[in-house]
Specification:
- By secondary structure, the protein is α/β, with parallel strands linked by helices.
- The protein has helices at 4-16, 19-26, 30-44, 60-83, 105-112, 188-197, 211-219, 262-270; strands spanning 49-52, 55-58, 89-95, 118-122, 131-135, 144-158, 168-169, 178-181, 203-207, 225-228, 238-243, 250-257.
- The strands form 3 sheets. Strands 3, 4, 5, 6, 7, 10, 11 and 12 form an 8-stranded mixed sheet that branches.
- InterPro entries: LysR_HTH_N (IPR000847), LysR_subst-bd (IPR005119), WH-like_DNA-bd_sf (IPR036388), WH_DNA-bd_sf (IPR036390).
Amino acid sequence: MIEVKPLHYFVAAYEEGSITAAASRCFISQPSITHAIKSLESSLGVLLFERSKQGIKATEEGHKLYKLATDLLLQNQQLEVAFTPNSKIELHLYIQPDINIEQYYDIISAIKNTSPNIELSIVDTAEQAQLAIIDEQLLSSQFQFKILHQESYKLVVRNDHLLANESSITLESFRGLAFIERPYCTNRKAFERLLNENKISITYKGKAIHDLQIQGLVKLGLGVAVIPESYMKKDDDLKYIAITLDTPITRSIVLAYRKLPSVLMDVIEDLTCLS
């Protein structure tokens, strides 16, 4: 008889395409995932994955088991809910660190208020999550998503900076400026490519770990920075300047989801794109 838990681990490995990512998602060690898969292969007498240095790839038998396993696990969850009226539905939520979550309070509240049995917990990686508020560029193919917001970037300077009175600037204005580095930026390579194409070199005076800190460093006069519009705040000591580009650099913030209880799907479907 096949147990349910190894099927959970198999499904995670199938969807992530990686033993490491599956272990992170399931909050267990990699050997536990490997053992569960080998146990299933032994019980069924088939090979479920082809293994290589690039990761794992499902065999024909693996694809067949995935469909059956997901159906079985969903039925198992529905049985538990049907016969345990007060059972809690735990949802794992990932929030990308450089996203201003204050903009999405209404969405999180709508999810939490769908049912008194829903419990949200924050996880460290998207692989561990059923829900994620994340930059679309970082999203794996295992998720569906709704676009919440699309935003551009602005240059933030101190109010006594030489550029503070400008309403917009071009990349040429970057020349000779001292910047606070934003190493976690998903569009960093796009900005660097444009700077290189225009033969503009910039100097970094330090690194920030989040966008509130980066503005504090700008406020201290340690440099300027490029940040997403959602982190602009009312501050008399700072100025935010639009950056004029032939092809604007933007990022799309999405609500990503997978394997949600049916009670939540209606809430997700009602969300308005590009708020």
